[in-house]
Amino acid sequence: MRPPASTAKHLGITGNPDYDGVPFTEFASVRRTTRIQELNLNWRERDLPEYQRTKHVHRLHPYLGKFVPQLVEIFLRKYRPRVVLDPFCGSGTTLVEANTFGIDSIGCDISEFNCLLTRAKVAEYDLPLLEREINDVLTRLRLEATPTLFRNGLAKEVRTSSRFLTAWFAQRSLAHLLLFRRLISGYTYEDLLKIVLSRAARSARLTTHFDLDFPRQPQTEPYECYKHRRTCHPTDDAQKFLVRYSLDTLKRVREFAKVRTNAGTEIACGDARTAAFPQADMVITSPPYVGLIDYHEQHRYAYELLGLHGRESEEIGRASIGSSRTAVAGYVDGMTEAFQNVMRSLKPGARMAVIVHDRRDLYDEMGERLGLKTEYRLGRHVNRRTGRRATDFFEDVIVWRT
Cα(100)–Cα(159) distance, rounded to whole angstroms? Predict the structure, then answer.
């Protein structure tokens, strides 16, 4: 295990049990008296399988930097807030989990795509209507994508001024995506269908199977695929993904409907440093890590396809500015400013649970600058990696009190 931060040691706060110990998975047993710092949260695949970590709508769309919903569940069960706030809501993990517990939630994110995704996850759906709309759009897709004696099929669809789209998609795939984009206009659940479109675009890019997370350049030729141990070819068919993900989305929304409550959810697309938040009594968040991910860039295909407005320059800690001393100092200033703004909406004595990759121990400095008390801090070994990232990775679970 990576040892706790130096300041945490001085406070007498210890890390969680050894990685080889028995992980905690009895989530329903968590009570107000449960001491989270005594729980082993180092879940291996056999302890917390992928299908549990991505239950129902948590898997509507891939998202880098997403934290495990079971962590959120533990905090919600222990502290039972009436209103929980996530100022960096990302793909909506905190808000989805809060809803299942009947807890009102507030989310904010600088990324327009993230807000679209979160709204699609927590929305209430008329399931029969959703099924009819999905079946209808897939029928129209199949009919219009198939050439006939009187119609050229996809020939007219490849019309875009986006250099990104023409570079990263085979012509046929791009035609499928643009056709689907045209067909979904006007449906009641158009926003959810936009998420299907984005998910299909991610899979249909001209990239290798083992590098979907961080592709550097389009892969236009056959390649030796170490994932499948054979020669693979870049895809030229997005239709199969559109069909597959449309049906999977319907299935996941149905699953979520069984546990969904009428708890209120507010989602604002804005900067956590300046947003005006309603009053809340707890924060649960996984903020951006310094110099690790460009959150807009990972969904560039969605921005291009959906015509979303990007605010890349306002991301705190984005990878494109690196992790130099200047970048790190800017990250600390930005995150401190964001948490100062968040604290204005919190009641005295409120807690903030922060899950972050803090290998530089920056959050001890932030806590001191913010005048917060660190109740506990522990390290969590994340042993499941994606793509070609196979090195050890750790998260810090920090609970501050105002």
Answer: 42
Q: Is the pLDDT of residue 199 over 70?
A: yes
Given a contact cutoff of 8 angstroms between Cβ atoms, the answer to whether 279 and 45 are in contact is: no
What are the angstrom distances between the C-alpha of 191 and each of 142, 186, 299, 310, 319? 21, 10, 16, 18, 28
Residue 286 and residue 92 in contact, taking contact as beta carbons nearer than 8 Å? no
Q: Is the domain of 65 the same as that of 164?
A: no
Residues 6+ apart with CB under 8 A from 97: 69, 72, 73, 76
Rg over alpha carbons for the chain, rounded to the nearest Å, is 22
Q: What is the pLDDT of residues 152-192, one digit of tens each?
A: 566 566 678 899 999 999 999 999 999 999 999 999 999 99
Considering the domain architecture, whether residues 131 and 191 belong to the same structural domain is answered as yes
| pTM attached to this predicted model | 0.91
Lowest mean pLDDT among 49-53, 72-76, 131-135: 49-53
Q: Of 155, 68, 54, whose CA–CA distance to 395 is shortest?
A: 68
Domain containing 10: what range? Answer: 6-111+263-295+314-401
Identify the residue whose tokens are 């947003």: 275
Helix (H) or strand (E) holding 378: strand 373-382
Angle at 224 between CA 223 and CA 228, to 5 degrees: 115
Does 52 fall in a domain?
A: yes
Cα gap 336→362, rounded to integer Å: 10
Domain for residue 309, yes or no?
no
